[in-house]
Amino acid sequence: MNEYVDVLPLKRADEAISIVRYRTKAPATKTKITLQQNLFTFLLDGEKTVHFAGAQVSVKPHQFVLLAAGNCLMSEKTASEQADYHSIMVLFDNNLLSDFFARHAVLLGQQAKQLDPQPFLLLEKDEFLVNFTRSLDSMLSSDKPIYHELRKVKLEELFLYLAVHYPGQMQQLRNMSSEANDDLLVRQAVTSHISSSITVEELAFLCNMSLSTFKRRFARIYGNSPSKWLMGKRMERAAKMLRQDDRKVSEIYDELGYENVSSFIQSFKQIYGVTPKQYQLSA
After folding, report:
1. pLDDT, mean of residues 217-236
2. CATH 2.60.120.810 assigned to 5-173
3. pTM score
4. What is the rounded average pLDDT of the residues 90-97?
5. Which secondary structure element, helix H or strand E, spans residue 215, and what is its range?
6. Which of 57, 111, 164, 262 holds its CA 20 to 30 A away from the CA of 28?
């Protein structure tokens, strides 16, 4: 069963920029996160998966990710039972990003339009970024806090490097914090999680809505409840896989976001009146 804890705000009080180390032997299976600031995560050990309303991203140690402020579901895992989950996080206010774009407009060029902005930016670590992460790691090794002006310099260094070497990706940052239309957000949330085990309550959280508001908006858009709509869509995909791919039931239930075979078979029978095996034999 998936587990989550209550909303966990990640923000250092009265600090526009924070650089912190996160290390644990028991990474969270699934955690509700309210990011009050944008967040760079540099993984040192372990893997991270983040679900947003309309997208999800998986991050491995050779990568790093920038997450836009807002609600998300975050899960972490270690490479082995003996290993720690270890990351360095840089949190910063959105006005720092806006200020950077204003000061370096010539370097960045004209802003490109992006019709479907993503709430994250995933990049592969190169030699510079590996060394940049090591420099942060070295600063955090001391018991003394990192001087605030030095935090500003390190963030500026990172922004400038990305602007020069990854200009296309930096352009995406300009749209990351734009607010989505509520109806569009609901559509993105449900369509991007059809094949996951995410709950309706978690979908509402990702959309930054109460459960009742989410259900009401969903019913107005789709004319059905979220749980029934999602089950119907998942079973449509299951039927297509059973017809075209000649797949075994035991191979596809997990792919469709079900935690066990019996719950998948029960849902399939509710929609089609027969078991997946019977459906496959009659197809």
Report:
1. 89
2. yes
3. 0.70
4. 88
5. helix 211-222
6. 262
